[in-house]
Automatic annotation (TrEMBL):
Its cofactor is Zn(2+). The keyword Hydrolase applies. InterPro entries: MBL_superfamily_lactonases, RibonucZ/Hydroxyglut_hydro. This is Uncharacterized protein. It comes from Tenggerimyces flavus. Belongs to the metallo-beta-lactamase superfamily. Keywords: Hydrolase, Metal-binding, Zinc.
Length: 256
């Protein structure tokens, strides 16, 4: 079975070179385009990530504190998740699966809108969140803010699906745990008319995979080496979730 895959732009932000490319690009800044991905076909309407909240203030306050004002997210008027879905004739109620990779404010903030969807989270990432008190990279409040956490473990709990390291949501729609960026990072593999698409935050841009350069903000370099090798060997279409070049590579955001 094959699916249509559509990129949805969520906003832009700048990061310093060594965050994108490990131990290189020291004097550069790079613009990232944060994206959600809509997957449709065979009775499935899946969404990879729900995008940042309507109010960017709290997230941008944190990003500005870490990297400075240049890093804050800039969003066009039509880039909120509900507006982007509407462009493709989809409402939040139509979504059957939400896949979160990783757990961050720009992926989880609108989960409450998707009241009919299975909420799919890497089991490794879920366990890490609930068993880790201090971490140099993961901040609990910016991974799963309290209101989202309460929603997930109460009203939405019957719909929360913890993903095994290798999992299948439907024939032709698979996930595998990749790590690299966060403990909740996965690769979403989708069979499309143009081949297998690999969608993930474990690689920020295509160059990470093609040249084997780990993202600088990786939590484990060996996971990067293994994940990028697997993607090179199995994917026909690489869809890094922050790559500004995706919209040139896939005109109008249509991957397959």
């Amino acid at each position: 079975m094959v699916y249509d895959v559509q990129i949805l732009p969520m906003g832009r932000g700048d990061i310093p070179g060594p965050e994108l490319f490990w131990m290189s690009s020291w004097n550069d800044w790079h613009t990232l385009l944060f994206q959600s991905v809509l997957i449709r076909g065979n009775g499935v309407t899946a969404l990879v990530n729900t995008g940042p909240a309507a109010d960017l203030g709290p997230m941008n306050a944190h990003w500005s504190l870490v990297l400075g004002e240049r890093a804050v997210m800039r969003r066009e008027d039509d880039e909120f998740i509900v507006d982007q879905l509407a462009k493709h004739g989809v409402t939040p109620a139509d979504i059957t699966h939400v896949i979160l990779t990783p757990l961050q404010l720009y992926t989880v903030s609108n989960v409450k809108l998707f009241s009919n969807a299975q909420i799919c989270i890497a089991e490794k990432g879920w366990v890490h969140f609930h068993t880790t008190h201090e971490h140099p990279h993961d901040n609990r409040a910016t991974s799963l803010p309290d209101d989202i956490l309460v929603h997930l473990v109460t009203e939405a709990w019957p719909r929360v699906r913890l993903l095994a390291d290798e999992d299948e949501l439907a024939p032709g729609l698979r996930t595998w745990w990749s790590g690299v960026h966060h403990r909740a990072s996965v690769v979403v593999e989708v069979d499309t008319p143009n081949g297998v698409a690999a969608i993930s935050d474990s690689f920020f841009v295509r160059e990470n995979v093609e040249k084997g350069i780990p993202i600088g903000i990786n939590e484990n370099m060996y996971e990067a080496i293994a994940a990028y090798k697997r993607v090179r060997e199995t994917a026909d279409l690489i869809v890094p979730l922050y790559d500004l070049g995706n919209l040139d590579r896939y005109p109008e955001g249509k991957v397959g």
